[in-house]
Amino acid sequence: MPKMKTHKGAKHRFHISGTGKLLRSKGPKSHFRRRKSARMKRLLGGKVALDSTTFSRTIKQALSALR
Fold first, then answer.
1. Which listed CATH number (4.10.410.60, 2.40.10.10, 1.10.260.40, 1.20.1070.10) goes with 8-66?
2. Cα distance between residue 36 and residue 66, in whole Å
3. Is the pTM of this model over 0.85?
């Protein structure tokens, strides 16, 4: 059986932390940066852990070749 390939879209959108949690980046960062406050831009900068309602098992399978 051939190797599992990493889904490239999932690779760019999600990361796996050292403890195995899935991390995502926050949303509207790219457009209209001038009219957002400095606090808003700072809050959009970091990564956030996925909550339990998302398809975390499917995403982990898409990222399986990264481990």
1. 4.10.410.60
2. 35
3. no
